[in-house]
Design goal:
Blueprint lengths: L5 E6 L1 H4 L4 H18 L10 E3 L1 H10 L8 H11 L4 E6 L17 H12 L2 H23 L9
Parallel strand pairs: 1-3
Antiparallel strand pairs: 1-2
């Protein structure tokens, strides 16, 4: 984090595989589209990022409140346009956390799989994940053309 303004904390393939298929498939799509917009591959939909103070100040001026899920792509695209230094790292620690919510300990692999299968069996969850992916993609496109309220970094 000391060398960048935005650190995108991505999931390893193993960590991503613990998520329900509804989430994996839709997040792969939003990641592909928004990575194409940026010109390099990032796991934006993991939702884990760290920012420098200068980057946060820039985002406060250039990102309107409201689209919480869309900020996964919006913030990185705005910072890219603003000339900020963006880096990425992959971690194993981003397993699917929802499986742990009703437990007093971290879910084991079998429990994660069972709960993910239950999640995937409900069409409402698929519809929700499609909407989240659409929000991320729409916010990314919006961030590409929004006028910036601050000059680019030098």
């Amino acid at each position: 984090m000391q060398t960048s303004d935005c650190l995108v904390i991505a999931r390893t393939e193993g960590a991503f595989a613990t998520h329900p298929l509804a989430q994996q498939q839709t997040e792969r799509l939003s990641n592909q589209v928004c990575s194409w917009l940026l010109g390099w591959s990032l796991d934006l939909s993991a939702g884990s990022k760290a920012f420098s103070r200068k980057a946060v100040e820039f985002l406060l001026r250039n990102s309107p409140p409201g689209n919480v899920m869309g900020t996964d792509s919006e913030w990185v695209i705005l910072l890219e346009r603003g000339g900020f230094r963006i880096e990425a790292t992959e971690v194993d620690g981003l397993d699917w956390e929802t499986a742990d919510r009703s437990l007093d300990h971290a879910a084991d692999t079998a429990t994660q799989k069972r709960i993910a299968d239950e999640y995937d069996a409900d069409p409402k969850n698929w519809a929700f994940r499609v909407q989240v992916a659409q929000d991320i993609i729409d916010a990314g496109y919006s961030a590409l053309s929004r006028p910036l309220l601050e000059e680019k970094q030098s």
